[in-house]
Design goal:
Keywords: Isomerase. With 228 residues, the protein is an alpha+beta fold. It contains eight helices and six strands, in the order H-H-H-H-H-E-E-H-H-E-E-E-H-E. Helices cover 49% and strands 9% of the residues. The chain is globular and about 50 Å long.
């Protein structure tokens, strides 16, 4: 069972770690490339702030973004701002998300995200947690996949394995960190490929943050994953 209260607390903790790390940057560092192709650190920070507001919209029954074009334009507009402006925006948008999460509501209701995707409201805090943790790594500011909380990494591997389950372009795959096993890919009587590695490397590959070269693969080549 998804525990939205636990996840809201985890979002607060992750946001504090992010704010501490960003506070150690300077204006020049904000303009430098992030680990996401084509995005500076400023783009990542702007996206994080606008994503918080977008998820407030979701929780309050409004469209997540006015449009895909508006989403992208807001990020491009805000990316070049100085560090202090980014920090203030991150704090204020995080506070708005926390307030929306604290409001009484039916957490079993279905909400709509981008591109017609729907989910349970109780999973929205976890989705925000994912945004904060993975984009903190994307900043290339000393926070790595190996630094992520263990319970987060395990849950996100499961979430992404579920996301690719049944996908016709992903070979039937068994994932293992040596103690836990997940299955993903299209349906088959038995997995065609077994992928083994550390949880950080498994998550990095599933989330498009690592190329999978550190993983061990048997039964065929490492499956190609569609973009998230």
């Amino acid at each position: 069972m998804m525990d939205h209260a636990h996840d809201l607390a985890s979002v607060r903790d992750a946001t504090e770690r992010l704010l501490t790390a960003v506070g150690e940057l300077d204006n020049a560092a904000v303009t430098q490339p992030s680990r996401l192709p084509g995005w500076t650190r400023g783009h990542v920070l702007a996206h994080l702030a606008r994503n918080a507001d977008a998820l407030v919209n979701v929780l309050e029954g409004r469209p997540m973004y006015a449009s895909g074009e508006a989403r992208d334009a807001d990020i491009e507009r805000d990316a070049p701002r100085p560090l202090d402006a980014h920090l203030a925006d991150l704090r204020e948008s995080a506070a708005r998300f926390e307030k929306a999460g604290a409001a009484p509501g039916d957490w079993s209701r279905t909400v709509e995200l981008r591109n017609g995707v729907t989910d349970s409201a109780r999973r929205v805090p976890f989705r925000r947690w994912v945004e904060v943790e993975l984009h903190h790594v994307d900043l290339a500011a000393g926070y790595e996949l190996e630094d992520l909380p263990a319970d987060f990494t395990e849950r996100e591997i499961g979430f992404l394995a579920e996301r690719f389950t049944g996908h016709p372009e992903v070979a039937p795959t068994r994932l293992s960190d040596g103690t836990r096993v997940w299955s993903t890919g299209r349906e088959a009587d038995a997995p065609a490929v077994t992928v083994t590695g550390s949880r950080a490397d498994l998550l990095g590959w599933l989330a498009g943050r690592r190329d999978g070269s550190a993983l061990s693969v048997t039964g065929g080549p490492l499956p190609a994953l569609p973009p998230l």
